[in-house]
Amino acid sequence: MQRHWEVVSSVLTIIGLSLTVYSLRLRGHFVADDHFIFYCLQQGGAFGFATYPPTGFFRPLISLHYYLDYMLWGMSPLASHGVNLLWHIVCGLLVWLLAQRVLARWGWRRAPARGAALVAAQLFVVLPANVEAVAWFAARADMVATAGALGALLLLMRFQERGCWRSYAGALACFAVGLFCKESLLTFPLIAWLWLRHLGAAQAGRLTLPFWGVLVVYWAMRTAAVQGLGAYPDAWATLQRPWLLGANLLAYLFQMGMPAILYGLGRDLWDTLLWGGWLAGVGLAVWYARRTPPLHTRPVAWSLVAGWALLALLPVLIFKPSPLYFLNSRYSYLASAFGMIGVAAMLMQFARPRRLSPVLATAAALLLLAYIFGGMRQAEAWREASAIARSSVLSLRDAPADKPLVILSLPDHFHGAYIWRAGFHEGVALLLPERASQPMYALSRFTMRQQADVRVQYAHGVATLSSPDDIFLPPEGVRTPPTDEPMVLPDKVVIPISVLRQGVVLGYEKGKFVALTP
């Protein structure tokens, strides 16, 4: 009975922490690529997104998943974000289960293994770096792929222990589903091989051959769909400078453990407080570890944990992360699952049986609180970004309908949460279908690093920003004027007169596009 209540308590803790961090996001709207996905589903049906050429990605099963959502409740933000949160909870529970099995395999006793597993799951579900994957509807594929990978590892362990081939078939199916949702599992056959070798499988190489077979089938179908390598064209340029792969790896690992955006340190009170609490927790943990020998009865196979994490990051190293704002942190979602198992095991190595050190307890509490409030703050940023995305498009109802619209700049992201990085024209088609055929051009994008009230100002052919902390970015994924192009600089946009004469010029202020007098 006591064991039953321990299980129930652990499950409720994982669910409760997830709801605490992400309940604010449930009330938000859609942003950026979300609109592109819905538009593709409306035009192409169940496999309208990332399945048929022209496309840079091949993710047919996540397209089907999105389509089922759309058929069940349409474009309901509450339901769509609720499904994302459900997937995050599932991944948190799988981390909890996998951590227990891994630690038991290493010879840990039941009580410390369960304690460490719960800590790993708690850290995973509140980690601010994972907010992008959970709070962004378009990033659901990262969670589904992670669930497939973790489920496959658990089933492979069951197969190795019991010789149950149905478990092996289930592991293969989990991998296939995850892979056809997102290509981040390209290295999973190596992860499975490493796991089977660790479990003592006599023919680990042969047992992974079906996984490689699934990968070959996937790659053939992907090549036909994307008509080449796919992905973002700029990402492959990373391979021309191999040293960037190492730099990106370090950036992902650092970003994974951050409590708040790095840009806010020293600039924003709350971000600075979160960093202060996190640094205090890390400092106390290091101080305690230097004075306390680890328990030899709680060994950790660091080669396995490190191998899993590095292999999980390998497919995404061509994509540049940004620790300044948590941008692209969704790519480290699977790696963070393995990383948090390692962090929890390391903390429990220094915890003494029946005698919890106040220093270690304080360090763990500071880290967890920094991550909880950091996650809540980042989830709130996504809610605010979604409000800006919706209000900015709806404000176009007040613009003239008989002339082309020339938008000086689109809001790109707020506090690391995307607004209109992509999907703007699809957003107009979905939210203002009566304006879908009206010519609209965007000359640039701009950041909202700390403030949501940044204004795009205009005078004498030059657009500037009201905030000195923010910059302009080149237009991306939007229609630009067919004539002369503006000169986009970080601090200003120089606009030719020929562009201004093409239609009504719109600036940005307080979440709305407003007409300006050139």
Q: What can you see in these coordinates?
A:
- Helix 4 (77-105) packs across helix 16 (333-349), helix 8 (165-179) packs parallel to helix 11 and helix 14 runs antiparallel to helix 17 (358-394).
- This protein has helices at residues 2-22, 33-44, 60-73, 77-105, 110-126, 131-135, 140-162, 165-179, 188-199, 204-207, 209-226, 233-236, 243-256, 269-291, 302-313, 333-349, 358-394, 424-431, 497-500; strands at residues 405-407, 410-414, 417-418, 440-442, 445-448, 456-459, 462-465, 472-473, 487-488, 493-494, 504-509, 512-515.
- Strands 4-1-11-12 form a four-stranded mixed sheet. A four-stranded mixed sheet has the order 3-2-5-8, covered by helices on one side.
- The chain is globular and about 75 Å long.
- A hairpin with a 2-residue loop joins strand 2 (410-414) and strand 3 (417-418).
- Helices cover 56% and strands 8% of the residues.
- The model has no long low-confidence stretch (mean pLDDT 92).
- The chain folds into two domains: 2-381, no CATH class; 399-515, no CATH class.
- It is built from 19 helices and twelve strands.
- With 518 residues, it is an alpha/beta fold.
